[in-house]
Prior knowledge:
The chain is of the alpha/beta class. The chain contains seven helices and six strands; from the N terminus they run E-H-E-H-H-E-H-E-H-E-E-H-H.
Amino acid sequence: MSSHNTTSEPSLPIAVIICSGRQPRVGDQITSFVIRTIQSKYPTSSLTLIDLLSWNLPMFNEPTIPSQIRSSSDYIQPHTRAWSEEISKYKGYVFVTPQYNWGYPAILKNAIDYLFNEWKGKAAMVVSYGGHGGGKAAVQLKGVLEGCRMGVVERMPGLHFPDKRVLGIAAVGGELFLEGDGAIWGEMEREEIGKAYGELLSLLGEEKKKLGRLNVA
């Protein structure tokens, strides 16, 4: 396992988002794998888990275009105000998304579209998974996040289910073998996640420097 320098890591809050709303699902297991991988390489990272399923946001039902909203108090719906306040806590985000029919889940698009300024100027990283690794979903999601004026890491790890047996287990929300000898993913996938997270930290560092220059000016 390669080492990573953690001494210069920004101690900024980062949310790791479970982007699957299906029941049953394996998104929670895979997101836990991503979090453990990040923490093993960057032990001082400040990570908070967000599960879109537990938020249970209805289809967007605000009367005002989100880009026109400047404060959570300006939203009409209590669930929107709560979602706005939650997302505003973080400087960066790790989206862990499945791929459905070459795209990412509707629950994720809805959650993104509820807000705009809360996402704007923040940094994001995408980890996808699926029978083909989820690359098409990741590319689509990257475009949407950039539309929200976010900085998105170019490296997007894709976690492939290695065979039909594992795909079958995943389809029914069964337990995936993610640790130890014989685990479906190994050091190659962990290294890719670690490199992408390092790029996310670099984006956060650049944003921190920009804010510092603005404050000085």
